[in-house]
Amino acid sequence: MFESLWSGVGFFGPFWDHILSYWKVSLENPKHVLFMRYDEMKTDPTGQLMKIAEFLGCPFSGEEEKNGSVEKILEMCSLPNLISLEVNKTGTSINGMDYKNHFRKGIVGDWKNHLTPEMGNKIDMIMEERLKDSGLKF
Question: In this structure, which CATH number among 3.90.550.10, 3.40.50.300, 3.40.50.1820, 1.10.1040.10 belongs to the domain 36-131?
Answer without folding.
Answer: 3.40.50.300
